[in-house]
């Protein structure tokens, strides 16, 4: 019975460590890069001024866009 309890605790600890590692990786992947309009044009992108409800964006030659801060 004691071995079963120890194995259960080890499994629970390993599960919690795995979940926290996945959460940290997800949080890091969700951060957005910060780019200025000068950096945008230096990398070959074009600055889109945006509109009344959307800020300026940088459109890169490969087609993806990022918000300008």
Short description:
The chain is an alpha+beta fold and 69 residues long. 49% of the residues lie in helices and 13% in strands. A three-stranded antiparallel sheet has the order 1-2-3.
Description:
The protein is α+β, with helices and mostly antiparallel strands. The protein contains two helices and three strands, in the order H-H-E-E-E. It has helices spanning 2-29, 37-42, and strands spanning 46-48, 57-59, 65-67. It has a three-stranded antiparallel β-sheet with strand order 1-2-3. A hairpin with an 8-residue loop joins strand 1 and strand 2. The radius of gyration is 23 Å and the shape is rod-shaped. The N and C termini lie far apart (59 Å). The relative contact order is 0.13. The mean pLDDT is 78.
How big is the Rg?
A: 23 Å
Outline = rod-shaped
* DSSP E strands, number: 3
Unreliable runs:
none
Describe the sheet with the most strands: 3 strands, antiparallel
Strand order of the largest sheet: 1-2-3
Helix content: 40-55%
Distance between the termini: 59 Å
> How much of the sequence is in beta strands?
5-15%
Which structural class do the helices and strands define? alpha+beta
Provide the succession of SSEs. HHEEE
Keywords:
alpha+beta; 2 helices; 13% strand; three-stranded antiparallel beta sheet; 69 residues
What topology emerges from the helices and strands here?
Layout: H1 2-29, H2 37-42, E1 46-48, E2 57-59, E3 65-67
Antiparallel strand pairs: 1-2, 2-3
